[in-house]
Amino acid sequence: MKLSSRPQPSELANIDDRIMPLINIVFLLLIFFLVAGVIKEVEPLEVEPPASTADVEAAPADLTLYISPEGRIALGDQILPTDTAQADLGAAVSADPDQSIRIIADQGVETVKLIEILDTLRASGATRVKLVTRSEAAR
User: Fold this and answer.
1) How many whole angstroms from its chain centre is CA 11?
2) Helix (H/G/I), strand (E/B), else coil: 31
3) What is the gyration radius of the CA atoms in the chain, in angstroms?
4) Is residue 94 scored above 70 in pLDDT?
């Protein structure tokens, strides 16, 4: 019985030649999934929009407004204080009234609260406001 003590240098080079393509493929797959993966926007408030039968794709907006079931408001990724939310919202919109605003309101939000926010947007000069709904098929 013959035991080999050490691999010869020519055998080591042969092993490296066989492993390199595998390493290249693994790195290419890693890069592919990093680039092709979709990074989901993190919502500052848990919001479930109302269902709709319309199949309209939500276009990106300059400003995104979230409204929770309790009536809390988040502008982008920042939750606004309850006592100054309407004033902060008005100031953000009046800085650029031509920006598009996307409202993602929870299905449990009281209509009165939504109307108050829409009145604040109108008073601030907003002209392009969209209310986001989820597709009925997504249930």
Assistant:
1) 51
2) helix
3) 27
4) yes
